[in-house]
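2024-03-11 09:14:02 DEBUG pipeline.ingest accepted 1 chain
2024-03-11 09:14:02 DEBUG pipeline.ingest length=334
2024-03-11 09:14:03 DEBUG pipeline.predict start
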Amino acid sequence: MKKILIALLLAAASAHGAPFVKGADVGWLAQMEASGYKFYNSQGREEDCLHILKDYGINTIRLRTWVDPSSDRASGHNSKDETVAMAVRAQQMGMRIMLNFHYSDSWADPQQQRKPAAWAGHDFPQLLRDVHDYTYDVMLALKQAGVTPEWVQVGNETPTGMIYPEGHTDNWPQLAQLINQGYAAIKAVSPTSKVVLHVDRGNDRQRFRNWFDQATAHGAKYDVIGMSYYPYWLDGRPDYTASIDDLGANLADMAARYGKEVMVVEVGGEDSRPQNTYDMLVAVQRKVRAVPDHKGLGVIYWEPQGARSWSHYELSAWGADGRPTKALEAFRAD
């Protein structure tokens, strides 16, 4: 009996001993490199972007995959092959991997969840097979390349569902079936990968309760609740201090209400206010760490390397000089 108890305690300690996730979504990186963009470390020396991120404490890389993307600079790339190649490269540097299925040929988010062109006109039974087979195919390609992602998202920012119109939240029974096809395919290839469902506005507890209550009622399968948190995009663009406590309360509520692990899978702040973004990132990490029972897994910055000079995106953590801003130092500080 004593040996069994010791084994259980060791297993629990091991489960709680996983490093806190300090992540970067770098879906633009292959495009940036292909366009000739150069990355410089804090000393001004040109260096591999992933090396720079790792030096700042980043231990996890998040990658998105699109079904049949174009080569367009603004909305292309992220094919299966490109995503697998970047995953291999990141893993070889000792990074952990999160894969994010958008189930679209381009961006999927609260404003758009367009069905892949190749799936247009398919009836619902065929659409279920499409989701399963595509998910299985990408996961198998990763496995054959020697990569086992620790986390895999089924859908990206899905407050009103995915793969419209069939997977809209107006029809939760169908949405749950689509989610479960993704879940089944992931687990068939990689049983240890944790499946993440992802909703935006992580400070909005009622939004999350409504969504995950429906997911639970309709039998949607998942392991982790993922949140986005962008104070800049909230109504009136308030400073993070106006919503950070709500984020912390929601993280704790989700973990307790559904018995799931939670993670901030997307966060970002203004590149023009690096000190404020630094302070926000420190605060977000502390809120996630404070989730009871070790259920707060970590924090992932969305495209920290996506410098505005290249992307026109205002929430990176990279300066016009090609170097990281002070904001990224928050992953060293906490």
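2024-03-11 09:14:41 DEBUG pipeline.report Strands lie at 21-25, 60-65, 96-101, 151-154, 194-199, 224-229, 261-267, 296-302.
2024-03-11 09:14:41 DEBUG pipeline.predict end
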